[in-house]
Amino acid sequence: MSGAPEPAPPAAPTIAAPAFPFRTRATIISRLFAVQASWNYEILIGNGIGFCVEPALRLLPGGAGSEEYRAALARQSQYFNAHPYLASFAVGALARAELEGQPPARIERFRTALCGPLGSVGDRLVWVGLLPACSFAGLLLFGLGASPLTCVLVFLVMYNAGHVALRLWGLQMGWEKGLAVASALGHPILREGPVWLARAGTFLAGVAVPLAVMRLVDGGGLARVGITLVTAAAGASALVLFHGRVEGWRLALLAGFAALVLFLFRHA
Amino acid sequence: MIVDVLVLAALGAILGLDVVSFPQAQISRPLVSATLGGAFMGNAGVGLLCGVLLELFAHETLPFGASRYPEWGSSSPIAGAAAAAGAAVGSVPMSLLFAVPFGLLTASLGGWSMVQLRQLNARLARRRLDALARGSARTVAGLQVAGATADLSRAGLVAMLAAIVALPAVRWIAVQPAPMSVYAIPMLASLGGAVAAGAAWKMFHSTSGTRWFGVAGLAVGALLVSLMSRG
């Protein structure tokens, strides 16, 4: 007969989540939209992180102005870098860590470790995913003949649905996970989102660019549209070929002004 | 004209603030801001044409962190307004042929002004590092407000200078007889299409599976162009 089962090892002590009042949460959310207001080459968005976390620090024992409050605010206003939308993950996690009374050295190590992932994931998800996809969607609507108001509104609504949701979700995840927020960065939205947004963006670009060019040329028949599109395709191939050595928009600036002078000069 | 310049400067200031400081809702994108500029001058349709052309170029210039990139928020509304102002007195193609390169030039200058602003913000922050190390909430909030105010002023100044140059210039250019102006929009569209397509490849080609999505998109696009051009 076997003996009594081994008692389970005691669970690691967990720290109960501190209260996160609605008013504090709302103030942080409103401040998140200005997280980059003092962006600079010295501490990047460090001051912005301190600015966003500050309403939560008022909940520390002693309240605003106490020794704990000032020490925590000083920690949170140091150098920090992240994508501005994903900074909300850091703000939620750091606010919770401070209110839980985590050791300062641990918070500072955590803060340093967060910078890289929040920057690279955000760039891929937003600047190379959501933004171009929504922009190409707006251009597609233009190509299909939509009114100015429709093009503008659809672009803004699509983009900001993603933008605002990302900020709110980031703050919530950061607060829920605290110092374990790195696990949230493996969430399918952040892992697979950039891939699917890139695919959607590529498809939309394929449809939108020819249609937008067609509507810009506006009439003149298939031949004129065709010549414009073939020229654009040749130009795109050249830009891809000289990728990293030539910037198309700078060439366009020169070409545009040169054409303007030529057209005016030819008349004179 | 003075009222137009002042209103456009205010519009450029607000839209320029959106690029980095607040709230980054992309109301500063050319598609939106040039249309707003055109609408202010009474022709949202021409503003949209200018916005679409600038938007095609904007795909090549993504706002990555510390990099220097064209600042579309203060430049595009002036370009859109200039296009609409020119269209009101003369030729749309010549107005766009001025407004689009002018918008690109202003965006480039706007990008330079953002670098200067970041250096100014850095100097302000450096002077207050001691106060930040003491955990001064007033300093933290003060730096945010100072940065946003400086950015608003910067964008307003860029927009005002651009409007002072662009509005009279486009009104003169748009009424000049220019027989070759029929080529203006196809040329701008070719350039814009080339830059946007090239930028799409650069952005997306390293992601697995995107090639087939691009091919499918191009097939649908070509079909629609063919059908709509005949229609």
List keywords for this structure.
heterodimer, A: 268 residues, elongated, B: 231 residues, mainly alpha, 9 helices
Walk me through what this model shows.
The complex is a heterodimer of chains A (268) and B (231). Chain A is mainly α. In chain A, 70% of the residues lie in helices and 0% in strands. Chain A contains nine helices and no strands. The longest helix of chain A is centred in the middle third of the chain and has 40 residues, at 104-143. The termini of chain A are far apart. The model of chain A has no long low-confidence stretch (mean pLDDT 92). With 231 residues, chain B is mainly alpha-helical. Chain B is built from nine helices and no strands. Chain B has helices spanning 2-20, 30-40, 44-58, 72-89, 92-127, 129-133, 137-173, 184-204, 210-230. In chain B, helix 2 packs across helix 4 (72-89), helix 3 (44-58) crosses helix 4 and helix 3 crosses helix 8 (184-204). The model of chain B has no long low-confidence stretch (mean pLDDT 96). The chains are: A mainly alpha (268), B mainly alpha (231). The interface between A and B is large, with 111 and 116 residues.
Give a short synopsis of this structure.
The complex is a heterodimer of chains A (268) and B (231). Chain A has 268 residues and is mainly α.
**How would you characterize the largest beta sheet of chain B?**
none
Mean pLDDT of chain B: 96
Alpha-beta classification of chain B? mainly alpha
Instruction: Report, as a whole number of angstroms, the end-to-end distance of chain A.
Output: 110 Å
Order of helices and strands of chain A: HHHHHHHHH
Low-pLDDT segments, ≥5 res of chain A:
none
Helix content of chain B: over 70%
The gyration radius over C-alpha positions of chain A equals 26 Å
Q: Give the CA-CA distance, first to last residue of chain B.
A: 42 Å
